[in-house]
From TrEMBL:
The protein's name: Protein YjdM
Gene3D superfamilies for this protein: 2.20.25.10, SH3 Domains
InterPro entries: YjdM (IPR004624), YjdM_C (IPR013988), YjdM_N (IPR013987)
Domain Protein YjdM N-terminal: 3-32
Domain Protein YjdM C-terminal stretches: 46-112
UniProt-listed PANTHER family: PROTEIN YJDM, PROTEIN YJDM-RELATED
Family according to the record: Belongs to the YjdM family.
A Pfam family recorded for this sequence: Zn_Ribbon_YjdM
Organism: Psychrobacillus glaciei
Origin organism lineage: Bacteria, Bacillati, Bacillota, Bacilli, Bacillales
Amino acid sequence: MSSLPNCPKCNSEYTYEDGSLFICPECAHEWELETKDEVMEEKKIVKDANGNILNDGDSVAIIKDLKVKGSSSTLKIGTKVKSIRLVDGDHDIDCKIDGFGAMKLKSEFVKKI
């Protein structure tokens, strides 16, 4: 017995594989199954400096004095940041810091509180 998935549109069990696509002969629906790499890519895990997993809405503290580009001021060690938002890219935390405004931070310079 084959282990082909049922059609996600009409739930028919008579699907067949054509290359990388699955096709339903009853409703003519075509779809691709997600590979393990795509699933892992969607669920990117962001960790702080101590290895704790960060989520949207967490509060963090800065663990190192950080120079702010384009400004003469610095973010001091221990500055608390509330309600972070995780984004893709090199700087993976998007947040608002009191007294500085909107900012992007790298997760390696923060710790979860």
